[in-house]
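User: I'll paste a sequence; please echo it back and then give the predicted structure.

Assistant: Echoing your sequence first, then the prediction.
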Amino acid sequence: MKFNVVLEEAEEGGYNVTVPALDGCFTEGDTVEEALENAKEAILCYLEGLSSAHSPASEIQSVIS
């Protein structure tokens, strides 16, 4: 699966990264390479969170709460 990322130079230095297709998925890095590597990790964490949020155990927990 591929996602577009947006890199913007940060005022304080480094780069801010957003992933438009994943609401709230963002990260940063001191270099372009670091920012892109951090983006990969942020995307994986985001998708893992979605996966666990839709697991049967979480659905049962939401009914109990």
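The chain has one domain: 6-64. The radius of gyration is 15 Å.
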